[in-house]
Amino acid sequence: LHAAHKIVACRRNCYYLGVMYYRLGDRANAAPYFREAVKASCQSPSERDFGDFVLNEAKDALRLCEA
Fold first, then answer.
1. What are the DSSP calls for 1-30, one per residue?
2. Among 8, 49, 58, 62, which residue has the fewest nearby CB atoms (within 10 Å)?
């Protein structure tokens, strides 16, 4: 996931890194990736298909991390 993020810091890659850290119980490291996902754009047609879903999920996850 980190390699993909280094190549393209798109919404999807940022979100997936946030999910990884969140699932590991590391909200402190998850939050910056969810924050980045909220600001990032979609970089491919396939990503645009679910980009709004990822955006909403990243916002919800960020709220949980910051609670």
1. -HHHHHH---HHHHHHHHHHHHHTT-HHHH
2. 49
